[in-house]
Design a protein that fits this description.
Helix content: 25-40%
Largest sheet: 6 strands, antiparallel, barrel
Shape: elongated
Number of domains: 2
Number of strands: 12
CATH class of the largest domain: Mainly Beta
CATH topology of the largest domain: Thrombin, subunit H
Structural class: alpha+beta
Distance between the termini: 135 Å
CATH architecture of the largest domain: Beta Barrel
């Protein structure tokens, strides 16, 4: 007997609560319209049902608030994504405009240089560098179909770059003046002493065949003399970084720093016209 009543005893408060709710609801809905309820009964039902109605309203409002907040967060997340996309697009456009402005700043002096040199020039972009260490060369994006030929001079607004040594249909390889196989006929800007600038195979050059009697100064500019048949006269070649005179030697030892910064070189110009032999003889 005790075992049978034990579950009832354990859940007695729950059962009692459910009975009260059932009785209250039965009183509420069993009343007919023509049978008026007593004020006392109405008050009792109100006290029983009111808290549940209040809880239902609060729960409904709470659920509505959660749903509204969820929708707001979804909209906010989508809005943030769109804003990030717009910011990234604007950043890319800004970078492109800055690059175009930098390119225009680099190319603008080339126009004045073209008028100064008075020879047909073809602009080209440096697209590669020889990484083997055997040669000092650049690859440019112009070739035979653009009128490029081997032996043509390559220059920049800073000065002489080198000469074309190999040509394909669309590209060309340029031998820089810093290469050991390169040579440029030069003269000093002040004393007009003549010599030959050859590359040292790294990032410098040396001035050869400058007689001991010639007076030169550190920082003096070397210009192309035009006697090599490759480069026009008067283009910057480099600056004398140091010079040494040894006893018993005929020629001085002179180191030259190229005028062109090959590490930062991006655009060059190919002189699409070889020097006329008669032009050399007139110099």
């Amino acid at each position: 007997m005790g075992n049978v009543l034990e579950p009832v005893y354990r859940f007695r408060y729950t059962i009692l609560f459910m009975l009260v709710i059932s009785i209250s609801l039965s009183f509420l809905f069993s009343q007919k319209e023509e049978e008026p309820q007593t004020p006392m009964l109405q008050k009792g039902q109100l006290e029983v049902v009111g808290p549940f109605q209040k809880g239902t309203v609060k729960s409904s409002r709470s659920l509505k608030s959660v749903w509204d907040n969820y929708l707001y967060l979804v909209d906010l997340k989508e809005e943030n994504r769109l804003l990030r996309d717009i910011i990234e697009e604007l950043r890319q456009e800004r970078l492109q405009l800055l690059e175009e402005r930098a390119e225009n700043n680099r190319l603008r002096p080339l126009l004045g240089f073209k008028e100064k040199i008075q020879r047909p020039l073809l602009p080209a972009e440096v697209i590669g560098k020889d990484l083997s260490g055997w040669f000092q060369t650049f690859v440019i994006d112009r070739g035979r179909r653009d009128g490029i030929e081997e032996g043509m001079a390559v220059v920049s607004i800073q000065g002489i770059v080198g000469q074309v040594m190999e040509v394909s249909k669309s590209f060309a390889r340029v031998l820089l003046i810093t290469d050991a196989n390169s040579s440029v006929a030069t003269l000093t800007q002040q004393t007009r002493a003549r010599g030959i600038v050859e590359g040292n195979g790294q990032d410098r050059c040396r001035l050869k065949y400058l007689h001991q009697s010639e007076s030169i100064q550190q920082g003096e500019l070397l210009l192309s003399s035009g006697l090599d048949g490759v480069y026009p006269k008067g283009l910057a070649v480099g600056i004398i970084s140091w010079a040494e005179t040894k006893e018993g030697e005929i020629f001085q030892e002179v180191e030259v720093l190229p005028s062109v910064d090959f590490k930062k070189l991006e655009e060059v110009m190919v002189i699409c016209e070889k020097i006329d032999r008669m032009e050399i003889d007139d110099q």
